[in-house]
Amino acid sequence: MFDTLSDRLTGVFDRLRGRGALNEQDVREAMREVRVALLEADVALPVARDFIAAVTEKAVGQNVLRSVTPGQQVVKIVNDELVAMLGGEGAAPLNLDVRPPAVIMMVGLQGSGKTTTTAKLGKLIKEKHGKKALMASLDVNRPAAQEQLAVLGEQVSVATLPIVQGQQPVDIARRALESAKLQAVDVLLLDTAGRLHVDEALMAEMKAVAAVATPAEVLLVVDSLTGQDAVNVAQSFSDEVPLTGVVLTRMDGDARGGAALSMRAVTGKPIKFAGTGEKLDAIEAFSPDRVAGRILG
Ligand code: GDP
User: Fold this and answer.
1) What is the pLDDT of residues 149-200, one digit of tens each?
2) 3-class DSSP state of 157
3) Residues flagged as binding site for GTP
4) Which residue of 54, 136, 162, 289 shows the fewest CB atoms closer than 10 Å?
């Protein structure tokens, strides 16, 4: 994760720290290199530009340049701005503090890792939050999508809604809610249908399901490997449905990290979780300060 960016930044900052005194020109040159490194990591251009402007403004101040360890101070400023760009300190928590069942609606394009992530979250909610979970697949488009969730449910020992062939998504959502209430379920996870692209039919379905399910969380699952496309998909969804957060999958294979770095700044939505592998426990709360620490080494 973030390997290339991390290597590049380490080089720039080692050189800055290695020098005793710094002047404004030194800082500006270093920031030019940081800008290139961000763009090479596929960070959205306006995000990179704002980031550099914010760091430069703080770093060229006299109390930084005249301090005993100016290089160190600049790195600290970069770290703080990176944390801010990623959404502020600490992980954005799941909002489960509503009258049960708390509904988590999972949305996203086909192949993004939505069903796998639903099962990962079901497991996490059961094991880490100690809550009773139920999962239901509303995907009536893709053959065997509902069966896939049932199989994953067995693997993580989280109940899934029995499949009734021929039922439409909104009706499945209603049945899932009723079942969750009857069984005193704390958290109901709804795995909605994906599509190859964002289209009107998909958005209409998401809105209809959201109207029935009144979710506490609407989590968009996107593939971090798709870079800026992931950010664009998030923007499209967020224009139509009230997203409360994003889950970035395949972070384990993402050496560049552009989606993770731009998501919050472009969409205003927090990344709540990162998928870090195919195994059903390969999910982490996305913590901006920890991620910034990982990038800056
Ligand atoms: P869906 O169509 O969005 O429901 O996608 P699936 O949940 O079926 O996932 C598609 C593929 O991506 C599966 O082979 C998953 O194992 C894999 N996958 C999902 N999340 C991750 C992740 O975080 N890392 C990796 N390496 N693979 C993942």
Assistant:
1) 999 999 999 999 999 999 999 999 999 999 999 999 999 999 999 888 888 9
2) coil
3) 108-115, 191-195, 249-252
4) 162
